[in-house]
């Protein structure tokens, strides 16, 4: 029995899709964990290693700098050598670099290890998302890619819970155990990914038709073949440089700018949450309540946005997210000296409303570029967005000490409104298109 008239983008979600979502989403969970754990350990770590404000900022930004290089390399490697091979590079680096933090003795050494972890994170974005999107049905594509962002925040929340528990019971050097705890999560991710097949779309782009046929039959059933993927047979040959021309340069500009403007305030908040909340007069019990509430609202905001992608649409969700979250940051600047409930309300509103821009970071670049350059586009977007995020994160402690919390919040609001402007001018709508249509320039 054959299914020659059924596109694989129209089949129902099956067990393989569910497992692949977990395998790819596990990378986002680990990313959120390793990038956020430094904020938990920063205070005790600064005392233990005698870190200055400069090195606090550099270590907080080091992983973001690593992501810059990892994104470029990961995107190129994934498009060149395949999704499956590169799928295990990130978890391996997570394990080795995280364990090494147990014995670190200097700011420079810690910077280099965090930089290596950043490279692993940068590799994760293009390989995990491109592999997932190339198997998913059309209706599930946006929500499932968006779920990876939800898992990022879940990983961040887990980092705060586990990190705080270790700090309270681990003594003066507990920060070492806090930082090294990511190795356990990395090991679980490595084991989870064993047995993952290669993307048939990538195999087909390399002319490996027989292998692509085998994977399609394995995943979708013996009645499915390359005939259920006819649009890929017509794909023109593109190179990594096509991201800068052939009509895709404009799309790359959009992805880079909206991604950058959506991550700068978020990474700054996560890296220096206790310091930012303290500057907003949230201390002691209020600070603890605030950290938990804000982290939870980030997750809730992403979940709500995920549900809106197929109803409200990608473009509308993005514009509303930037506009309303920007107003919340503006409010934090205007009322930076307000009472604790007002600060929590505004900060919570930002965390809830930025969810739309966060979940679309992995949706848009995977939809707007074809198979040959898809991972490369995600990698470039990851890398360039982290340049701004790294600079912003490094400047947070300096900005707070020099200009105060009000000016810092105004700057965050300005960045968010820049993202709104670029999205208004360049964001397309792709919710009703299959993967080939969304990536086409026609």
UniProtKB/TrEMBL annotation:
Compartments annotated for it: namely:
Membrane
Its predominant location is membrane
Tell me the membrane topology, using the record's own terms: Multi-pass membrane protein
Every copy of the Major facilitator superfamily (MFS) profile domain together lies at 20-431
UniProt KW Transport keyword: yes
The family database entries (InterPro entries) matched by this protein are listed as:
MFS_dom, MFS_sugar_transport-like, MFS_trans_sf
Q: Which parts pass through the membrane? A: 57-77, 86-104, 110-133, 145-162, 174-192, 252-273, 285-306, 318-336, 342-364, 376-397, 403-427
Kindly indicate whether the keyword Transport belongs to this entry.
yes
| Sequence similarity | Belongs to the major facilitator superfamily. Sugar transporter (TC 2.A.1.1) family.
Q: Per its record, how is this protein called by name? A: Metabolite transporter
Source species of the chain? Pseudomonas cremoricolorata
């Amino acid at each position: 029995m054959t299914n020659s008239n059924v596109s694989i983008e129209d089949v129902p979600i099956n067990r393989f899709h569910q497992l692949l979502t977990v395998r790819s989403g596990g990378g986002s969970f680990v990313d959120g964990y390793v990038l956020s754990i430094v904020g938990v350990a920063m205070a005790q770590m600064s005392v233990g290693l005698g870190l200055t404000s400069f090195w606090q900022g550099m270590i907080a930004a080091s992983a973001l700098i690593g992501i810059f290089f990892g994104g470029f390399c990961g995107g190129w490697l994934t498009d060149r050598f395949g999704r499956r091979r590169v799928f295990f590079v990130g978890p391996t680096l997570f394990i080795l670099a995280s364990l090494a933090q147990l014995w670190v003795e200097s700011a420079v050494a810690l910077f280099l290890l965090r930089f290596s972890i950043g490279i692993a994170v940068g590799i994760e974005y293009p390989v995990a998302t491109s592999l997932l999107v190339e198997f998913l049905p059309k209706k599930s594509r946006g929500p499932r890619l968006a779920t990876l962002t939800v898992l990022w925040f879940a990983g961040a929340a887990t980092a705060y819970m586990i990190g705080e528990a270790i700090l309270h019971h681990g003594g003066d050097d507990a920060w070492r155990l806090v930082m090294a705890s990511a190795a356990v999560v990395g090991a679980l991710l490595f084991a989870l990914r064993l047995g993952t097949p290669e993307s048939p779309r990538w195999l087909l782009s390399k002319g490996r038709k027989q292998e692509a046929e085998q994977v399609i039959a394995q995943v979708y059933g013996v009645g499915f073949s390359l005939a259920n993927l006819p649009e890929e047979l017509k794909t023109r040959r593109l190179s990594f440089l096509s991201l800068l021309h052939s009509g895709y340069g404009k799309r790359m500009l959009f992805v880079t700018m909206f991604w950058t403007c959506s991550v700068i305030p978020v990474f700054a908040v996560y890296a220096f949450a206790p310091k930012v909340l303290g500057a907003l007069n949230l201390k002691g019990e209020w600070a603890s309540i605030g950290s938990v509430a804000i982290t939870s609202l980030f997750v809730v905001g992403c979940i709500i946005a995920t549900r809106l992608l197929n109803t409200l649409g990608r473009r509308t969700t993005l514009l509303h997210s930037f506009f309303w979250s920007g107003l919340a940051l503006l409010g934090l600047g205007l009322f930076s000296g307000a009472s604790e409930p007002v600060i929590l309300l505004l900060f919570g509103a930002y965390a809830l409303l930025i969810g739309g821009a966060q979940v679309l970071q992995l949706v848009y670049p995977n939809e707007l570029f074809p198979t040959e350059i898809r991972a490369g586009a995600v990698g470039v977007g990851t890398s360039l967005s982290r340049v701004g995020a790294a600079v912003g994160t490094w400047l947070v402690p300096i900005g707070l000490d020099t200009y105060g919390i009000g000016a810092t919040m105004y700057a965050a609001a300005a960045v968010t409104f820049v993202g709104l402007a670029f999205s208004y001018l360049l964001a397309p709508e792709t919710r009703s298109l299959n993967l080939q249509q969304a990536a086409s320039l026609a």
